[in-house]
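Protocol step 4 of 6: structure prediction from sequence.
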Amino acid sequence: MIRHFALLSLCIASLNANDSDMDGVPDHLDRCANTPFFHQVDANGCSSAILKLPQDSANGLYVTLGYGVNHNEDLQEDEERQFSTDLEINYYQNNWNYSLRLGYFHSESDDDTKDVLLKIKRTFEVSDTLKVSLGGGIKLPTYGFEGNALDYQLQSSFVYYHTGTLSFFGGLGYEWINDEDSLNEVQNIASFYLGSGYFFTDDLYANLSYSYKESKFSSQHDIQLLQSTIFYKFNENYFGTLSYGHQIFDHDLHNSLSINIGYSFW
């Protein structure tokens, strides 16, 4: 038994010596060193089926339907839990992205449509590993409360692919709020976020991010949020995401959970 184990160990060591990333392609023929063990590779040892996130698409139409729940102990007991349904449509063409988001929410005491969000974004490929995006948007005042008005957004973001599996991302945003509120002073909103993501397999991606956002009301504290998202590709067309967010540095409990199912038309 010991002799068989030793022989197996020698075989593995011999294979590893000629194929350091163990992708089945000898080192002297391997054009892509250190390919992740779980990636499918071609004859050159390079990944042949890498997971591509919708936001990395140069061309395509993506429709996503999501359902989520938010829990906020700052609100009255019958309003602490709020449920929402969202429909988002993204069209990508030649590094331009056109986005439409519709939403509806309900709680024990209230329900209404969310503001409709329209956005446009341009992505610039600075290098093979760095992408930078600039964009803007408008919020149409479809949420039915007195004083709701048209709001404007500006956003910038980046994604840096450190390796074939590890990425870093971040962004800045600013929103001009034109709403009027008789009880609270309303202010413009500045925000930023930073995070890192990892491609575990050809079908599975996860990330963790930190975000900071000023409150719409000057009397309320700013929002600092830790959020994690898992992306899974079921097949060439269908994909899903699961996201969890938790507000930090707050005495009350603020968290959210959402699940989304999406479809790619090409």
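Step 5 (inspection) to follow. The two ends are 54 Å apart (CA to CA).
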